[in-house]
Amino acid sequence: MTLFITNIVGINIQFDTGINMIINSFAFPSSLGHQYLLPIVIGATALLEYFVFKTLIVRLNIPTLGREKKLVEDQTMDVASIDSTVNVVDENSEFEPQIQNIVVGLGGADNIENIINCYTRLRVDVKDETKVNMSILKEKVKSSGIIDKGKHIQIIIGVGVEEEREKVEAYMSQLKVTKA
Questions:
Q1: Residue 67 and residue 60: Cα distance in Å, rounded?
Q2: Which residue in 19, 47, 75, 118 has the most C-beta neighbors within 10 A?
């Protein structure tokens, strides 16, 4: 779309991606086109695309991360039975409920095989995927979304994910020490 609009307003440069296009456009002589319009065209098309895609996502109810449908019927327990049968949070623990809920939702400390993080996601490999309780993870863990890929679970936390991972590891260590 940006290429179409730039051709209409008379910008005659070779297109690359984003910031490279802006930088390269100012390296060419201005007699080739109206390069000064480039940031305005890019901003206008970005806004247009944002509102078009947002409208389509909302009107067509497309499930994006953070907007998934609650799939409680796929779980062996529903949310009401979770609250009555599982004491997810131990008020006497030094660890916050968020950390405890992550470990319990993943099937306990013994079920977590590997835990790492990237910039925004907590990436967990579990031993037994049937022990993972997605209802707890989706209902009780504060996150932008949960991605379930069988034995590989991703919890989208955001920028503070490294601190969350460290707390989860410390909580798992404490659970393993008290169990032994």
A1: 12
A2: 75
Q: What pLDDT, on the 0 to 100 scale, is given for residue 36?
A: 74
| Ranges assigned E (strand) in the chain | 112-117, 121-126, 145-149, 152-156
Question: Look-up: residue for tokens 């695309």?
Answer: 49
- Annotation says 118 is catalytic: yes
Judge contact between 125 and 114, C-beta under 8 A: yes
- Token couple for 136: 């707890």
Helix (H) or strand (E) holding 6: helix 2-9
Element (H, E) at 26: helix 18-27
Tell me: the pLDDT tens digits for 76-120? 444 444 443 455 666 667 888 899 999 999 999 899 999 999 999
Q: Is the pTM for the entire model greater than 0.70?
A: no
- Distance CA(165)–CA(180), nearest Å, equals 23
Closest C-alpha among 92, 115, 119 to residue 103: 115
pLDDT in tens, 129-153: 999 999 999 889 998 889 989 899 9
**Active-site residue identified among 58, 65, 118, 147:** 118
Q: What backbone torsions phi and psi does residue 121 show, to the nearest 5 degrees?
A: -120, 145
